[in-house]
Amino acid sequence: MGTVGLNWQIVGVGDFSSMPGETDLMMRNANTGAFEVYDISNNQVTAAFSLGTVGLNWQVAGFGPMNGAGTSDMVLRDVNTGAFEVCDIANNQLGTTASLGAVGVDWQLGGFAADPPTGSMGSADGSTSQLVQAMAGFGAGSGTGESLNTAPLSAETSQQPLLTTPQHV
């Protein structure tokens, strides 16, 4: 498929080109913070697009359909402040960004799942309330087994407080 410099790291795959059935590759330059998307079709790179540069303090937390079904949007976290941002990606371009709130920097992202907004919510409202984070906090000097914080979630659970408040069983 080709060669890139060792400073480029794979950060995720998704449909960044908005072409149904296509899986694209996103890479990031570890030295500059630049993002690059490679469209892939039939096991070949068909095009490359620069998405711009983001400060190295912003790390990729994951990708998901935050803006709607079938989208591959990127979630970033600022390692200095704990802030989360979602970046809409379509047609190989960064679109709007929205804040998802912040958690303390002593919390580590364990993963997340996202349900795309339903028809009743619409994708134009910029809602990020569907983001669910599975997070575990690890305090200094404590073992992981004793410091794991979890909370059962139901359909009625508001997601916003989970971004800012540790939940205990």
Structure description:
- The structure is a single chain.
- With 169 residues, this protein is mostly beta strands.
- The chain has one domain.
- 5% of the residues lie in helices and 46% in strands.
- The protein is built from two helices and ten strands, in the order ββββββββββαα.
- It has helices spanning 144-147, 160-164, and strands at residues 8-14, 24-29, 34-41, 44-53, 58-64, 73-78, 83-90, 93-102, 107-114, 131-137.
- It has a four-stranded antiparallel sheet with strand order 1-2-3-4, with no helix packed on it. A four-stranded antiparallel sheet has the order 5-6-7-8. The protein has a two-stranded antiparallel sheet with strand order 9-10.
- The chain is globular and about 45 Å long.
- The relative contact order is 0.13.
- Mean pLDDT is 74; it is low at 119-162 and 164-169.
